[in-house]
Amino acid sequence: MVAIDKILSLGSRGVLFLGASRKNRIVSASAVFLALCAFGAAGVAPIAPDAADLPVHSVVENLALPNLSEQIAGMTPSAQVFVSEEKVRPGDTLAALMQRLGIDDNEAANFIRSNAIARGILQLKAGKRIQAQTRADGQLVQLSAALDDARDAGPAKNLIITRESDGLRAKVSAAALERRVEMRSGEIRSSLFAATDAAQIPDVVASQMVDMFSTEIDFGADLRRGDRFNVVYESFWQDGEFVRTGRILAAEFRNGGDTYQTVWFEEAGKPGGYFSFDGKSLKKAFLKSPLEFTRISSGFSMRMHPILGQWKQHKGVDFAAPTGTPIRASGDGTVEFVGTQNGYGNVVVLKHWSNYSTAYAHMSRFASGLHKGDKISQGELIGYVGSTGWATGPHLHYEFRVNNEPRDPLSIDIPNAQPLAGVDLQRFRKVASDMSHRFALMSPQDTSVQVASK
Questions:
Q1: CA of 80: how far to CAs of 76, 84, 134, in Å?
Q2: Are the C-beta atoms of 398 and 408 separated by less than 8 Å?
Q3: pTM for this one?
Q4: Domains of the chain from N-terminus onward
């Protein structure tokens, strides 16, 4: 009866519950049970304590106050340094230059005039830049400038004057230069140098081009209007100022219907040289003469020996020259002998690649530090002209040998240097590919394209 009374008290909701299916009844009962659990959990959950009732603990620590005098000293400004830069003007005096740089320092002026190194400032050409660091009263702290003795083949140098604790000091140091790769293109309209001027190519680069292609092109007679050239070369800069031009890295010349190309490449352990794009060296393996300026006094032929007084085969070529004239290796090689040999006097024998060798006799003395086994490059100094051994006067006796048999160096077909091979050839192909890409960038459409890249 109690159960019935509870159901009746539910009214219509109880009827719905009883009339529902078993599944619906189970779901409804579960929902009621979970609701009751939720209300029960809320009823038993503790209430958070009031923050005002929490205990409070005091922590006391003694802190040292900063030193006021030290703070004031730290706020005092340090001695200021002022930086200025000027260019040397035509007719400049040291006083005028120092005045423009803001230098008011008699000690510095006297030092520059009297010190052997510092006097280099007085020899600077017009247009050279000078940087100065001075204090507020004009006292010199540092003075620096690039020297004018930086030639194309030599290292660039800076002259630096600094004030140290015991006075002024001057020194010359190597300059850190920025290397750039310049790309230029031009077209022949009247002459080569007119075309290179129009393309803003330095004359030293134009001269290199003439040397490179002179065996294929007669620049006095073969040039035609419309001939084109592309050239890639080095330039060196310091602090944004041009210092000097380097070597040509690659060049291309289109003369009539022919195209000539060359690229600079350095083999491992050997000096660099120019090669055609197929890896063949453009340099002859041997020079015609080991002396730059001379005359032939006796050729490769039968002659009356000046000392023995009888007809004898002269197995070399004699180059007459004053005592002390530099003698240079005619080709890359290794020193096979350096010393004295009978009638040859002081003689050097170089062993070259394959079966070639050369001999240089009657030297007055050898190049400093020359020893057997040394690696020698073409054009390298090996000794000086003299008259040692069987000689009636100062001259160089030069022999060109094949399989140790003397040959006439003036008539033999001088071979080119060895072509590239192996790893060197693989490296060369990458360099040549890069230069071919550069040539493609400079070749028409626009014939006035001039590009410079780092």
A1: 12, 13, 9
A2: no
A3: 0.53
A4: 81-174 (3.10.450.350), 178-283+444-453 (3.10.450.350), 295-407 (2.70.70.10)
